[in-house]
Design brief:
Blueprint (H helix, E strand, L loop, with lengths): L20 E6 L5 E2 L14 E5 L6 H5 L30 E4 L1 H7 L4 E5 L9 H14 L4 E5 L3 H13 L2 E7 L4 H8 L4 E5 L3 H14 L3 E3 L5 H6 L2 H10 L7 E5 L4 H15 L9 E7 L4 H8 L24 H10 L4 E4 L1 H15 L5 H15 L9 E5 L24 H5 L5
Parallel strand pairs: 5-13, 6-7, 6-9, 7-8, 10-11, 10-13, 11-12
Antiparallel strand pairs: 1-2, 1-3, 4-5
Helix pairs in contact: 2-12, 3-4, 4-5, 8-9, 9-11, 10-11, 12-13
Bound molecules: pyridoxal-5'-phosphate (PLP) and zinc ion.
Length: 423
């Protein structure tokens, strides 16, 4: 029998614990149920999503809010006083006008949404901030996750700041930087001899056995996932309250792409942006491309794979939201594409050289995929495009090691400098 994320499941939550959220709704069969520590549909085991009764929201009230994701508090399942409880205050990262990269790729208009600027240097701080709020409201005792690396960093940091016990599970062979960047925050870090999919299975088992454990991306996943909507909200706001025509988004579990779509839909529904057409593209590494393979084969289901790629942050072989990514890519006229590890490395260097942005391998995947989509004519070079960089290159230095080095190494003498040929 499964245990509960709340210590006392019969407890009632304080009024407004989940903001304007009103219920949980099944993505498969639309069955609804009350808000609480639930993540799978009782009728069909489909994933549950948050439903809201939004008040009137204006651009002005949002713009008057804090310069972080809490400016969108009324569109998230968090209480009105969320900004005052200890959290890492992620979001409102740069939207960089990427004219040099656009020129290089032959695009009319390109922006990079650079989420490496978050507190632990990836977009995961967004989703973790919402999960932390849910864990608090559900009175969870432990804040936990299985992670491909970035989520581990974000959970450990947010837990430290909030004063809640954290237990983070990772595959043992992650990049050293991601292991150290988790361990420094002082919580428990469990390295598991296995793949991410093994770690995820273990986490689900523990979540079912242990009372009071909030696994951010397992049993509080409906709340956690809503954090990715803030990427959509920010991009639209930063473009002057407009939805971009094309967006290239990395796909691991597929949650982020799914929620960027939900975010755009909610902005339209609320009248905050015009209802203009947009196309979403998913990006994967060839060595872990189950969603891209299903897209190309015309399948509705995603067959799990065993990952083998340098893009470890995206190395989820059995992606929970894969089928929804396929639906959205097809519905919006987009695609899901993949690139080789060499293309990932080249794309990291291309973005760094043209825009001064050092991306982790996930950013190499999106920029590499963008290039491939342009070259093959599937992404329209005349439509306004946004490409996501969701993590920081300092976390995956090995990806470019051997490709970059000092131009010259010299003694501190002027003749030596002249001998380099730099003047
Ligand atoms: C840097 C980075 N970008 C993108 C993703 C994709 O996230 P999702 O599981 O929501 O598809 C991840 C997932 O771990 C990540 O670490
Ligand atoms: Zn259902």
């Amino acid at each position: 029998m499964s245990a509960s994320v709340v210590s006392n499941p019969a407890a009632t939550f304080r009024a407004g614990a989940f903001g304007n959220a009103t219920a949980l709704v099944c993505r498969e069969c639309s069955a609804t149920r009350e808000l609480g520590p639930f993540y799978a549909c009782d009728e069909c085991f489909g994933p549950l999503e948050i439903r809201y009764d939004f008040p009137a929201v204006t651009r002005e009230t949002i713009e008057a809010g804090p310069k972080n994701i809490w400016r969108y508090q009324s569109l998230l399942p968090v209480p009105t006083d969320i900004a005052s409880s200890p959290n890492t205050e992620p979001g409102f990262t740069r939207l960089v006008k990427a004219d040099n990269l656009a020129r290089e790729l032959g695009l009319r208009s390109l922006h990079v949404k650079d989420d490496s600027g978050n507190p632990t240097h990836s977009f995961k701080d967004r989703v973790v901030a919402i999960a932390l709020s849910a864990a608090r409201e559900l009175d969870a005792k432990v804040f936990a996750c299985p992670s491909t690396g970035n989520l581990a960093n974000a959970v450990a940091a947010a837990g430290a700041r909030a004063g809640i016990r954290t237990v983070v599970f990772i595959p043992h062979d992650l990049e050293p930087a991601k292991i150290q960047m988790t361990a420094v925050y002082g919580g428990a870090l469990v390295a598991v001899r296995g793949s991410y999919d093994d770690v995820n299975r273990l986490a689900s088992e523990i979540a079912g056995e242990e009372e009071g454990w909030a696994f951010v991306n397992v049993n509080v996943r409906p709340y956690y996932a809503e954090g990715s909507k803030t990427l959509a909200f920010e991009v639209a706001e930063q473009l002057g309250w407009r939805i971009p025509e094309q967006v290239v988004i990395p796909v691991a579990s597929g949650s982020q792409l799914t929620k960027v779509d939900k975010g755009f839909q909610e902005l339209i529904e609320l009248g905050l942006v015009e209802d203009t057409p947009y196309t979403l593209f998913g990006a994967q590494a060839e060595g872990c491309s189950p969603v891209s393979q299903a897209f190309k084969a015309g399948h509705d289901v995603v067959r799990p794979v065993k990952p083998d790629t340098i893009a470890k942050s995206l190395a989820i072989g059995n992606p929970a939201d894969g089928p929804y990514v396929l639906d959205i890519a097809r519905r919006t006229g987009g695609a899901v594409e993949d690139v080789t590890d060499d293309e990932v490395r080249e794309a990291i260097l291309l973005l760094a050289r043209t825009e001064g942005i050092f991306a982790e391998t996930a950013g190499g995947v999106t920029v590499g995929t963008l290039k491939k989509l342009v070259d093959s004519g599937r992404l329209d070079p005349d439509r306004e495009t946004v490409v996501f960089n969701t993590g920081d290159g300092l976390k995956t230095l090995d990806a470019v090691a051997g490709r970059v080095a000092p131009t010259a190494t010299i003694d501190p003498s002027y003749p030596d400098f002249l001998s380099t040929g730099l003047v």
